[in-house]
Amino acid sequence: MELTLVWFILIAILWTGYLVLEGFDFGVAMLLEKVGKGDKGRRVALNTIGPVWDGNEVWLLTAGGATFAAFPEWYATLFSGFYLPLLLILVALIVRACAIEWRGKINNDVWRQRWDWVIMGSAWIPSILWGVAFANIVRGVPIDESFTYTGSFWTLLNPYALLGGATTLALFLSHGAIFLSLKTSGEVHERARAVAKTMAPIALVIAAVFAIWTQIAYSVAWTWAAVAVAAVALVLTWVWGNAGSYGKAFAANAVAIVGAVVLIFGSLYPDVMPSTTDPAFSLTVDNASSTDYTLTVMTWVAVIFVPIVLLYQGWSYWVFRRRLSTDHIPEHGGLPTLRMPKKVSQ
User: Fold this and answer.
1) Which of 63, 206, 282, 305 has a CA between 20 and 30 Å from the CA of residue 315?
2) d(CA 279, CA 340)
3) Quick check: pTM over 0.90?
4) How far is the C-alpha of 234 from the C-alpha of 257, rounded, in Å?
5) Which residues contact 314 (CB under 8 A, 6 or more apart)?
């Protein structure tokens, strides 16, 4: 197997890991106000992802770094053409990290509630924009003979891409609700369970429309298998979620996300970024790749370090596997009290 194909597959695997793991992080954050009616409830929701959310982001860093090293032309065109949406995603991820860390630093309800809204907003933005970005990559964008993106930000907001954004949003909301149902008990569990029952069929319908559109317009025959697997997985997510088998439902929803990634990357190959200006200007695994020597060195590094990362991350999930409830959340104590400024009468 050629190294360019090996790294195309490895990058797809890295994106799969990121979307499956960060997907429930985003879902939990988006549902923060919905499932946690009080401060303790919201702290329960945040504590379910507290030990793992920053580790899940490593998959994004690795996927971006691997793309830069293995396919530098792809990376350059992608990040220059999609500059604004990717910048918005980056800012949202940075702000979310600050909000999660800072919300509990001061013992004041207004302070914490403001940061909770920041956490929710910074999860909604990437949940939509990742779908928009991947849909545009599959659909193709204006690229000239020098591999330069010639469109604008508004070029990316086409109906197919917006449907892609709706798909990732729905899948992540369902993923997060099922994760909370699996990881919590008490009131938070009941609210998350209600959201999961609602979101599972919605995600099924939206994802089905997107998958069929992708398959008919942009894909190849063998990826119908990925569409079928994703469809069955989403049906099982709905069935098992309603039956209270949240471990099975979570696994099924993860399989649906895997199927979506297979459909996207299967539709692309051998392109990595199709050109709508002229197919001859498309970036492929061959004209966008690094040298064989670079890919060989990268392969050995991946063989050594990827298993270590997987073992460590698997261990962290095992350590923090127990359910949480408001009974596990202590009262705020020993924190400085913030006095919010009063309005001055005019």
Assistant:
1) 63
2) 59
3) yes
4) 9
5) none
Q: Which two tokens stand for residue 300?
A: 């050995």
Report the alpha-carbon distance of residue 71 to residue 80 in Å, rounded. Answer: 14
DSSP letter, residue 13:
H
CATH of 3-323, one of 3.30.499.10, 1.20.1630.10, 1.10.260.40, 3.40.50.2300: 1.20.1630.10
**H/E stretch holding 283:** strand 283-284
276, amino acid identity? T
C-beta separation of 326 from 40 below 8 A: yes
- Residue where the block lists tokens 């949480």: 324
Torsion of CA 256, 235, 209, 259, to 10 degrees: 20
229, burial (CB in 10 Å: exposed 0-12, middle 13-18, buried 19+)? middle
| DSSP letter, residue 31 | T
d(CA 38, CA 40) in angstroms, rounded, equals 5
DSSP label of 108: -
For the four alpha carbons of 176, 198, 121 and 152, in that order, the dihedral sign comes to positive
Domain boundaries, the chain: 3-323
Tokens 């299967």: give the residue.
266
H helix or E strand, kind and range, residue 273: strand 271-273
What is the token pair recorded at 255?
């399989």
Q: Shortest CA distance to 241 belongs to which of 187, 203, 206?
A: 203
**Cα–Cα distance for residue pair 295/292, rounded to 1 Å:** 5
User: Tens of pLDDT along the chain (346 residues)?
Assistant: 689 999 999 999 999 999 999 999 999 999 999 998 888 889 999 999 988 998 899 999 999 999 999 999 999 999 999 999 999 999 999 999 999 989 888 888 889 999 999 999 999 999 999 999 999 999 999 999 999 999 888 999 999 999 999 999 999 999 999 999 999 988 999 999 999 999 999 999 999 999 999 999 999 999 999 999 999 999 999 999 999 999 999 999 999 999 999 999 999 999 999 999 999 999 999 999 999 999 999 999 999 988 998 898 899 899 988 888 777 777 764 444 445 445 444 3
